[in-house]
Request: fold
Amino acid sequence: DQQVKQNSPSLSVQEGRISILNCDYTNSMFDYFLWYKKYPAEGPTFLISISSIKDKNEDGRFTVFLNKSAKHLSLHIVPSQPGDSAVYFCAASAFQGAGSYQLTFGKGTKLSVIP
Amino acid sequence: DGGITQSPKYLFRKEGQNVTLSCEQNLNHDAMYWYRQDPGQGLRLIYYSQIVNDFQKGDIAEGYSVSREKKESFPLTVTSAQKNPTAFYLCASSIMFRGNEQFFGPGTRLTVL
Reply:
């Protein structure tokens, strides 16, 4: 059973417009959420994160919103640029005990920014 | 330059052979992880290790083995028991107690013929 879901496999956006990537989760024990960006045949790179005690975190063009009651988070990219074209993974973290955390990943959303 | 290296980038093996994927980090991170990615899928955790000489199974450990003899190194062996070994393998590391912030290597694409 998928605990982290990204229901849109792909998204196309015009350059300069806003990109909104969505992620839903089911495990209420998740307390930290991350977005990773991944190009083909490369490792994911960390983009932005948010703790469950916040509802918004902003870093330049990237903003993550967290709605705990709905178990939903979203990543907003404004303005979108062609270099943003990549697969974006949502990940959630829960404390496992003894200093151990595990990340649970969604299946990813492929963003294409059209010039 | 600190980072995580995985070698080789591409690896080909015949069916029935064991193969070991290398992962080295010079970030002085305590914890290391192995993930597998298949097309259209998220990353799935194979094994992880928080300290030297200790490791735990992840969600899909069957057919894999690991060792952690040094803090910097966490090799993954894909054994002949792994039914679908062809995949993209990613190694990651994190500071102890900060496993929610993991840094990834460039990955190894394993193809079993």
Notes: Chain A has a mean pLDDT of 93. The first strand of chain A starts at residue 4 and ends at 5. The two ends of chain A are 38 Å apart (CA to CA). Chain A touches chain B at residues 4, 9, 32, 34, 36, 41-46, 49, 89, 91, 93, 98-103, 105-108 (CB under 8 Å).
